[in-house]
From TrEMBL:
Belongs to the PPR family. P subfamily. It comes from the Eukaryota. The keyword Cell membrane does not apply. One of its GO terms (molecular function) is mRNA binding. Residues 343-452 form the Pentatricopeptide repeat-containing protein-mitochondrial domain. This is Pentatricopeptide repeat-containing protein-mitochondrial domain-containing protein. InterPro entries: Mito_RNA-Proc/Resp, PPR_rpt, TPR-like_helical_dom_sf, TPR_mt. It comes from Handroanthus impetiginosus. Keywords: Repeat. It holds the Pfam family PPR_2. The keyword Cytoplasm does not apply.
Length: 650
């Protein structure tokens, strides 16, 4: 305890704790406060409040819990304004239970004076995005009937709208209407937009009518919200009718309404209506949005009205602050979609006459345009010019140019571009790699294709999550299983999982090369990834195992197939049956034949007769009952009766 604490009186110490707390000197404030507690001094309400404020600001929950208990034992109750501030601090720290406890105390001691604090807490919770917590608060104090007033409902509607929980907000809104409480304008506008988005237009119109009737000042924002909702939902006729209604009332809709109508009219190719709206906007000095300009540019370019499009661009320069090259870029993009190289050249010429410089966006749009016009050479020219000026083309530009070159037989130019990309350290995406490799393989340049992939891999110019499944198939078809396996492993290292058919090709390839252990390793990995082999892959594994004398493993695979719900092919069954027959293992042969029958296959006559003959010969040699019984069972199983006197064996 500080020596000064012993020397100062009670009043002075209260004042010091309050001053230090308000200045943020928590340690000094606590030192004097603890000294007062030990000496049994009376601590003022203001002292408790100031120190609690300071501790809340510091986020010290442990100290707060200690002090609030002391304060409550001393019958501490903050002033209303202090209580509101303290409740706000508690909310900011997410100490909701402490806030609820404090509010309960305040309401119990002085309910008439602290309802404002309750609304302040509700507002703070809703503002912070904790409207659900606020609803719990409302339920906690629902016995205080006077609390559920208009102001509280407004906080809830605005809070739920802010959190995009419009369904919850609408429930509160309907409760307000049932109690004849006027809804908030901002919240109502957002609810109208949500109702239109969910195609609940009748409710949206009803809400508009209610708000307009109860709050005449809300007529304009509510109507504008509904017009926007109609436009975005494609109900242009209703939007236009409501727009006219607003004008007849002598009101000017918000600028976003004009832009929404322009975009909608563009979608319906109503140029006359668009010109009328533009004229109104110019007279009222309303700004045209970039989205509206883009929609109008698309409409005029699609209709090949280039002169109007250029005039519209000049108008935008007069009434907006958008840079001219941005407006040209939008125009070039939409002109490109027409696939008309003459119009594209006209816009580029107009661009150069303005002494404007191409930026990255302009180059990419021009490249796109000439590709759409099937003028690959000019697209390549702009691409190389762009790169010489140290602009990086978009992945789409690189991808589409190289793809077109490969498709058009201009592989050498595509490879030159690829080498330029390598020198700049640019990644080769899947489409670029696939097109170059496919072109090389088609030309019979297998080694060059492998060298290309090895080179970009060694330079780490491959993005993550690559999907090499198609190239795995192509290298398998070219007899280069080693490269197919390499690509599969690269996929896994890069965080991408191969498709089942990629494993199929690899497994079948190893079976063709009689490398069964490698095939079985990839088969195990395949099952581990929860992928199912194809029937062809099962056949390859089972037949290869049988052919090389590993027939028991082949039989295990047959059983695994059946356990997984698959039906082995007749070929797979016979590869195992024939091997067991060659080994004179009649019991195993019979077992597989029976399994095959259960799967709907009937054995052919030669297999059946060979098995019967072997059993018959074995029975004569052994002169025992065991094989005779086995033979009878086999004959019975395949539809022959042991009592048939006309049937003879041997």
């Amino acid at each position: 305890m500080s020596k000064s604490t012993y020397q100062l009186d009670e009043k002075t110490l209260n004042m010091l704790v309050q001053i230090y707390s308000k200045m943020g000197f928590t340690f000094r404030a606590r030192t004097h406060f603890d000294g007062m507690v030990r000496r049994g001094y009376t601590i003022d309400n203001d002292t408790y409040s100031a120190l609690l404020f300071d501790i809340c600001k510091k986020g010290d929950l442990t100290s707060f819990q200690y002090l609030i208990k002391l304060a409550q034992k001393s019958n501490w109750l903050p002033e209303v304004n202090d209580g509101k501030a303290l409740l706000r601090y508690l909310c900011n720290n997410r100490w909701y239970d402490k806030a609820f406890e404090l509010l309960e105390t305040m309401l119990f001691v002085s309910p008439n004076d602290t309802f404002d604090a309750f609304h302040s807490l509700l507002e703070e919770l809703c503002r912070q995005g904790s409207t659900s917590i606020a609803r719990l608060l409302l339920e906690e104090f629902s016995n205080q009937a006077t609390i559920l007033d208009h102001k509280a409902y407004l906080h809830f509607v605005n809070g739920f709208c802010q959190e995009k929980k419009f369904a919850e907000a609408f429930k509160i809104f309907e409760t307000m209407l049932s109690k004849s409480l006027s809804p908030p304008v901002d919240g109502s506008s957002q609810l109208i937009s949500w109702l239109c988005k969910t195609e609940n237009f009748e409710k949206a119109i009803e809400l508009k009518n209610t708000c307009s009737r109860d709050q005449p000042s809300a007529l304009l924002p509510i109507h504008c919200a509904l017009i926007n909702g109609f436009c975005k939902s494609g109900r242009l006729q209703e939007a236009a009718s409501l727009f006219k209604e607003v004008l007849l009332k002598g009101l000017v809709p918000y600028v976003d309404v004009f832009n929404a109508l322009i975009i909608s009219y563009c979608g319906q190719n109503k140029l006359k209506k668009i010109k009328e709206l533009l004229g109104f906007m110019l007279r009222k000095n309303l700004s045209i949005s970039i989205s509206s300009y883009s929609s109008m540019a698309l409409l005029t370019c699609t209709g090949q009205k280039l002169s109007f499009a250029l005039s519209l661009k000049e108008l935008m320069l007069q009434v907006t602050y958008f840079p001219e090259f941005v407006l040209y870029n939008i125009l070039i993009f939409h002109i490109s979609s027409t696939r008309n190289s003459f119009l594209l050249d006209s816009v580029i010429d107009a661009f150069h006459k303005k002494e404007l410089q191409f930026d990255e966006v302009t180059y990419n749009y021009v490249i796109r345009g000439f590709l759409l016009c099937n003028d690959v050479s000019r697209a390549v020219n702009y691409l190389t010019t762009m790169m010489r000026q140290d602009f990086k083309p978009s992945n789409r530009s690189l991808r589409e140019v190289i793809s077109c070159l490969c498709r058009n037989g201009k592989l050498a130019i595509a490879l030159d571009l690829s080498r330029e990309m390598e020198s700049r350290g640019w990644n080769h995406g899947l489409v670029v790699q696939s097109n170059i490799v496919e072109a090389l393989l088609t030309s019979g340049k297998i080694l060059e294709a492998i060298e290309f992939l090895d080179r970009i891999t060694s330079k780490d110019l491959i993005p993550d999550n690559m999907k090499y499944d198609y190239l795995i198939k192509r290298f398998y078809q070219q007899g280069r299983l080693d490269k197919a396996v390499d690509l599969l492993n690269i996929m896994v290292r890069k965080g991408s999982y191969p498709e089942a058919y990629s494993y199929d090709y690899v497994i079948q390839g190893f079976c063709d090369e009689h490398k069964l252990d490698m095939a079985l390793d990839f088969y195990t990995e395949m099952l581990h990834r929860d992928l199912k082999p194809s029937t062809t892959t099962w056949d390859a594994l089972i037949c290869s195992l049988s052919d090389c004398g590993r027939v028991e493993e082949a039989e295990d695979l047959l059983k695994t197939m059946i356990q997984l719900g698959e039906t082995p092919s007749r070929k797979a069954f016979y590869s195992v049956i024939n091997k067991y027959q060659s080994e004179k293992n009649i019991g195993k042969t019979y077992g597989i034949l029976k399994m095959m029958q259960e799967k709907g296959y009937e054995p052919d006559f030669d297999t059946h007769w060979s098995l019967v003959s072997n059993l018959s010969n074995s029975s004569k040699k052994d002169d025992g009952k065991k094989n005779s019984s086995f033979l009878s069972s086999l004959l019975s199983g395949f539809g022959f009766s042991g009592k048939d006197k006309n049937f003879k064996v041997g």
